[in-house]
Specification:
Arc Repressor Mutant, subunit A; 33% helix; alpha+beta; two-stranded antiparallel ribbon; globular
Amino acid sequence: MSLPATSYDVRIPQLLLEQLSRGEISVSMLLAMTFLYRWSDWKTGIVAHTSAGGLETATRHAYSQRTFQHAMKRLEKMGWITRHIVPGGRGSFAVTIHNYKWVDEDGEVRMLNSKPPFNLIGTRVN
């Protein structure tokens, strides 16, 4: 995963930290989201190429590939991301981050890929 030519700060949604505090997400899920935000195109909220193995390597083996696979599956179930996986594919895939906020050149906060997040029980999270 190469970094974009322009460096910028990544803002992690407060809701993710609240969900971690309540035990609704795991640390591996928060770490996966942090890297997905870092790798995303800030004008689309999409990560062009990622994989659980890529997350394992990028985090210096903080968690196993299988743990990151499970983390991304749960994040998708909760509505944070959509994985664009080709059935039977074993390589990298694109990921859309939902409710992706970015600030444009005029200082306006924009939200892309709107979708209400849910907890694992299926209840809408406020």
